[in-house]
Design brief:
The structure is a single chain. By secondary structure, this protein is an all-alpha fold. The chain has 16 helices and no strands. The protein has helices spanning about 5-55, 55-80, 85-110, 115-120, 125-140, 140-155, 160-180, 190-210, 225-300, 305-340, 345-360, 365-380, 380-395, 395-410, 410-440, 440-445. The longest helix is centred in the middle third of the chain and has 76 residues, at about 225-300.
Length: about 450
């Protein structure tokens, strides 16, 4: 087996990760733009309504990522092994699966918006806005999910720059339309959610340039063994779904806890933290997803040395960025909070300021955990990836949040996240060390070829 040149691999890693991080930051601005414009246009009640409704987006996004990342991983492995026909069947199966899942969300939006708003504990002050946001975001689920799937496949088909361009085009349109719909047209929260929901359609328009090109390997093919193939795709992408769904569950839990302690103003403060967290998390998601095609290709070709190098590059990048991000947020927390706190509410600013200092200490561990989970998904060790996602999202965080909030109030709420990520990172490191130790003999063999 031919050994990959380390300098060439590093440059390829930089290319994929740079494009994907830039695109993911842009993608996260879907929600951040809503937050900024809603906070300025509708005040704390609008911010509360958004934060009560937005966890549903995590389930839509997570389901799209499950089919996209799972299918993209399988597609890349099959391409590296020279099985083009199977790769095309995988693409078709992933698209069909995404559309089937999205139909369930559309039904929920059409008939269950009132029940969902009540379930999220929206009171009379914010019920109407919460319901509107939920209804529209669910009705546009097919666009969000299909966009996630096509983004993943285009990236794995060797076009990460177009994936980045598509994500940025969608995000830029969201920002522009947010402003137009909320301020000049006065459409309120309905305008904000419509702007967000149109963004994936614009992104898909950009991605169609690859789908229609002669160089594209993404061609429809009649699926074979649809159920078995679909299950294989979903198993590889399950950790992505768990991570996103758990994020939604955690937001709901935190909302309930904070509502009981600090009311709507506390939820508004958490809304600032949660939306900043989405942007920061998108950076680590970008590193992990940018690494995935390289990890999967190396796995399909049997290059263990390349897998190890890409993992080290990714962890090093995430760790350096963690220090820069935390330092910047700690120093600039007052002006950052001011962007969301146009009315200058002192209680809101104090709660959000404490949250930034405590909550964001988690992110050096978040990077380790997300990249490790992606490593295992990329080399078809879905069980380990699933275990890490469950530990981070549900098994540790939910009981810790409930316990620590009772013991330490809002300080406990903020600290439950970094404590969870620290514990999960210890497990991640153990899994990774065992994985590379298992393949050490094979790696040494490849090194001398």
């Amino acid at each position: 087996m031919k050994k990959t040149n380390p300098s060439s691999l590093f440059l390829t890693f930089c290319k994929y990760v740079l494009f994907n991080v830039t695109g993911m930051i842009g993608l996260s601005c879907y929600i951040l733009a809503d937050t900024l414009f809603i906070a300025r246009g509708l005040g704390p009640d609008g911010l509360t309504a958004l934060n009560l409704a937005i966890p549903i987006y995590s389930f839509i996004h997570g389901t799209g990522l499950m089919t996209g990342m799972g299918g993209g991983t399988r597609y890349s492995i099959q391409k590296a092994a020279g099985n083009t026909a199977a790769a095309r069947r995988t693409f078709t199966t992933a698209v069909i699966a995404a559309l089937a899942f999205s139909f369930l969300f559309v039904l929920a939006g059409a008939f269950g918006d009132k029940a969902l708003a009540s379930l999220m504990r929206a009171d009379s002050a914010v019920f109407g806005m919460t319901r509107i946001y939920l209804k529209v975001i669910l009705l546009f689920a097919p666009a969000f999910m299909l966009n996630n799937v096509v983004l993943c496949f285009v990236r794995n088909d060797g076009n990460p720059n177009l994936s980045m361009a598509a994500m940025l085009a969608g995000s830029l349109s969201n920002v522009v339309l947010d402003y137009i719909f909320i301020f000049p047209l006065g459409m309120g929260i309905f305008g904000a959610v419509i702007a967000t929901s149109l963004a994936p359609l614009i992104s898909l328009g950009v991605l169609s340039l690859h789908l229609l090109s002669a160089k594209s390997g993404l061609r429809p093919a009649r699926p074979s063994h649809m159920v078995k193939s679909g299950a294989g795709i979903l198993s590889l992408g399950l950790s992505s779904f768990i991570a996103e769904a758990a994020s939604g569950i955690v937001m709901i839990t935190f909302n309930f806890i904070i509502l009981s302690q600090k009311g709507n103003l506390g939820v508004a403060a958490y809304g600032i933290i949660a939306n900043l967290s989405l942007v920061v998390t998108s950076i680590y998601t970008g590193i992990a997803q940018g690494s995935q095609p390289l990890l999967s290709e190396a796995h399909g070709a049997g290059r263990q040395d390349s897998i190890r190098r890409v993992y080290i590059y990714a962890i090093t990048s995430a760790s350096v960025l963690s220090v820069v991000i935390y330092s910047s947020l700690a120093l600039l927390r007052a002006p950052v909070i001011g962007l969301f706190n146009h009315a200058g509410n002192k209680a809101l600013a104090e709660m959000a300021g404490q949250g930034i200092l405590l909550y964001f200490t988690a992110f050096i561990f978040v990077g380790i955990n997300m990249i490790s989970a992606m490593l295992f998904s990329s080399v078809e060790r879905a069980r380990l990836s699933f275990t890490l996602a469950m530990l981070r999202g549900i098994v540790l965080l939910l009981p810790l949040a409930l316990l620590m909030s009772q013991l330490f109030g809002m300080t406990g709420v903020w600290l439950s996240f970094p404590v969870t990520e620290l514990a999960a990172s210890a497990v991640s490191v153990l899994f990774v060390v065992r994985h590379f130790k298992k393949h050490a003999t094979h790696s040494v063999y490849l090194h001398y070829q």
